[in-house]
Structures are given as structure tokens and as C-alpha cells.
Amino acid sequence: MEEHEVLDHFIKSGVLKGIWFKEVPVGLKVLTKIALRERKSWEEFEPDKVINTYSVGRKSVDAVCITSPQNLINLEVKLGDWIKMYRDALLNPFKGRSVWLIEAKSALLSESAFTAIGQLIYYEHHFKKDWKGFVEGKAIVYGNGTDEVTLDAIKGLKMRYGIVTWHVSENGKVTSTSGYGAEFP
């Protein structure tokens, strides 16, 4: 399964319920500082120039879930609209809310596990700065299996980094591989 399929199956499963946003940009605060520093040569603050600056170092969380009793999947938001939401606190959907950051992988083998763990730590740092949300949890969702070395490492992720893992099968069945989920609604 491709990463987007793993993510779609996971969201639809309802294991984690809430209001879902895909491809949420992070690092906007830092990149806005860079854009403002370079702004001296600009006539005015133009969102297109910020987008161009941001596109070079663009990072985004695969999915962010605002925890809620119901499952609602939002359409993908354009980068220009994310920047408007970032700049206007009234439009910010995450400010003061509890969220989960989700990273999807087609499989969770050692190399992709290292990448996903690093991404989630990086994303959490920038998400808090940019969006002012409370990160309740971080998760890696994956398909196509894993290996014993990675499974051993996964066991320590929950306690040390607050990262949990779920395996998503081809038919959409979701199973916790980190001991998390049985107590989750």
C-alpha cells in the first residue's frame, strides 16, 4: 500500500476520532522570519513571495487530528490558505486544541522508522510554534509490515517520545503495535 492509502484507511477506521487535516505545513514561523528579513527588496508583504520562500524548505505533517467524538475529514487545504490561517488567529483551526500528529509509511522497516520518528519530533516542535495547538499524541501508521529490530524499538517510543504505532492491513483493519489503543475510545 502507498502511504496515502495507509493514511486514508487509518482515518476511515475511526480508531482515532476527530477533525482531520492532511498535509499541514510546519516551519511557517521560521520561514516567515526569513521572508521578512528578505522583504527589504519587496514592495509589500506578498503571500506569493512567502509561498515561494516556503516551498524551498517545505515540510508538512501527513495528517493532524483535532480530537473530537466524531470523525470529520476535511478537504485538502491549499498552501496559500494555510498561510492565511497561520497569519490570522481567528482562522487557526488548531489554536488551543488537543491534536494528534500522524506520519504514514508504506512499511515500517528500520530506515523508515528512523525517518518517521525524526519527522514527528521535528513536526511537533514546529507545530507548537506555528499553530499553538496542544500535541496530545504522535503516531506512525504503516502498512506492509515491520521487522523484529523495529518492533523492539517501537516498544520504547511510547514512553520516551510519546509516539505510538498502528499497523493498517490491506483490508483496512487497524492494529496497535505499541500497546496503545485498547484503552482508546
Topology:
Layout: H1 3-13, E1 18-26, H2 28-38, H3 47-56, E2 59-67, E3 72-73, H4 79-87, E4 98-105, H5 110-131, E5 134-142, H6 148-161, E6 163-168, E7 174-176
Parallel strand pairs: 1-3, 4-5, 5-6
Antiparallel strand pairs: 1-2, 2-4, 6-7
Helix pairs in contact: 2-3
In brief:
The protein is α/β, with parallel strands linked by helices and about 180 residues long.
Q: Could you characterize the architecture of this molecule?
A:
With 185 residues, this protein is α/β, with parallel strands linked by helices. The protein has one domain (3-24, 59-176). 42% of the residues lie in helices and 25% in strands. It contains 6 helices and 7 strands, in the order αβααββαβαβαββ. A 7-stranded mixed sheet has the order 3-1-2-4-5-6-7. β6 and β7 form a beta hairpin.
User: Outline, from the CA principal axes?
Assistant: globular
Q: Can you count the helices?
A: 6
- Beta-strand portion reads 15-25%
Q: Briefly note the structural class of the backbone.
A: alpha/beta
Mind summarizing the main beta sheet?
A: 7 strands, mixed
Strand order in the largest sheet:
3-1-2-4-5-6-7
Helix content: 40-55%
Number of domains: 1
Gap between N and C termini: 26 Å
